[in-house]
Write a structure and sequence with these properties.
Largest sheet: 10 strands, mixed
Structural class: alpha+beta
Radius of gyration: 32 Å
Distance between the termini: 30 Å
Number of helices: 16
Number of domains: 2
Strand content: 15-25%
Shape: elongated
Number of strands: 12
């Protein structure tokens, strides 16, 4: 064992009889470092968990991109387009696009014996990806839209079922107010809940696309637009631009970030909170290391004077205390990771901390174990703490052995 490592080990173990504060200060520094690292890890994993879950919910319900006739915009009763446009194969060939599905929407008034509610019927067909809806299904079953016959089965949300006292298997009427009044009877096949009440659950009912086509007087080739899914949501803006350039001037392409800006702007604000918290924790960790090393140096001034009197260089002495600091940083990071990851794993397994779903879109605090995020937090914390040690370690070179021994 090298001499400077041996001396550093003795300081860490508190085996210096003249040392008063050494070991308690080291323990306190490790505890402070651990707490800071745990807070940073929990913050990052919770915020990325929020973003991931809410993004998955919105995109699962409304896809990543929507292609519509330019005149329709985001209106509920859209203009129609062909289900086999000339650009369809070119759009499918864009790298990153995984699925396209036709849809149509129509506004109406849902009426039961005692209640009524404004709703939007979303017409889907056999090509619609129901993976997300299947996960959100609370009771009943998914409707079967594979038949050539028009199906009366629909999916309604938990919010609507509770407001209107509707259960699976029960029927209701929807009125469509147009030039000629139309009414259709539907049967509840299943009840779903996404947690996105204002945007989806309070409004949407899933029905057979053929019903919307018949109500609008369209043929089987007419739809309101296409919903497009991509393999990488982080690249959705770039893919949206490519799709927009391929389609003609008669069509518009929008990402869900543009369709639901209120949700994604809110998620972007969480990034600012994360940056502020991490910056503060980094500063606290760095200042903590400076103060800890200063206390240890002052507590071991006589030892430093003796080592210098015996011929030790300032660099040799500096390595001793950098070794002590390295022990504190590594130990703090290790314990902090155990605490932070352990708390998040417990939350992921038990959903111990709950949230009001109507306000946060999720019923419990979400957690996302992002390995790059964990490594980045650990790496930046380590580098900041080591850089901060330059200040106190410079004091060692200014200590004069003669003066230290004279006043000891």
């Amino acid at each position: 064992m090298q001499v400077h490592n041996f001396i550093a080990k003795k300081i860490i173990q508190g085996k210096n009889n003249r040392s008063i504060y050494g070991q308690p200060v080291i323990r306190l520094a490790i505890a402070s470092m651990s707490l800071g690292v745990a807070v940073m890890l929990v913050t990052v994993m919770i915020v990325t968990g929020f973003k991931k879950q809410i993004t998955e919910k919105v995109s699962g319900f409304a896809s990543h991109l929507q292609i519509t006739p330019f005149a329709s915009g985001n209106n509920v009763d859209e203009s129609s387009m062909s289900s086999h446009p000339s650009f369809l194969n070119s759009v499918k060939a864009i790298p990153g696009i995984t699925h396209l599905q036709p849809y149509a929407r129509k506004a109406g008034i849902l009426k039961t014996k005692d209640e009524f509610e404004g709703v939007v019927l979303k017409g889907i067909d056999k090509d619609y990806d129901l993976t997300f809806i299947k996960k959100s299904l609370l009771s009943g079953k998914l409707p079967n839209f594979n038949s050539n016959e028009i199906s009366q089965e629909v999916l309604i949300s938990k919010n609507l079922s509770e407001k209107l006292n509707l259960k699976t298997g029960e029927g209701f009427l929807v009125y469509f107010l147009e030039d000629t009044k139309k009414v259709r009877k539907f049967i509840v096949s299943g009840i779903y809940s996404t947690g996105l009440s204002d945007e989806f659950d309070n409004i949407y009912i899933f029905c057979d696309l053929k019903i919307i086509q018949k109500l609008n007087g369209w043929n089987q080739d007419q739809i309101a637009g296409f919903e497009v899914f991509t393999s990488d949501f982080s690249n959705v803006d770039n893919i949206s631009s490519q799709v927009y350039n391929i389609t003609s001037f008669n069509f518009d392409t929008k990402s869900i970030k543009e369709i639901y800006p209120q949700i994604f702007n809110w998620l972007d604000l969480q990034n600012i909170n994360v940056i502020i918290i991490i910056t503060l924790m980094m500063l606290v960790a760095g200042i903590n290391m400076i103060s800890t090393l200063l206390i240890i140096i002052l507590d071991n001034t006589l030892s430093i004077g003796l080592l210098k009197a015996l011929g030790a260089s300032s660099g040799f002495v500096r390595r001793i205390y950098l070794q002590v600091s390295l022990y504190i940083v590594v130990r703090g990071l290790l314990i902090g990771n155990i605490i932070g990851i352990g708390l998040c794993a417990f939350q992921l397994k038990t959903n111990f901390i709950t949230l009001p779903q109507e306000s946060y879109y999720v019923s419990s605090v979400p957690v996302n174990f992002t390995i790059p995020g964990i490594l980045l937090i650990n790496g930046i914390t380590f580098i900041v703490c080591i850089l901060m040690l330059i200040i106190p370690s410079g004091i060692i070179s200014r200590l004069s052995p003669a003066k230290v021994l004279q006043f000891s």
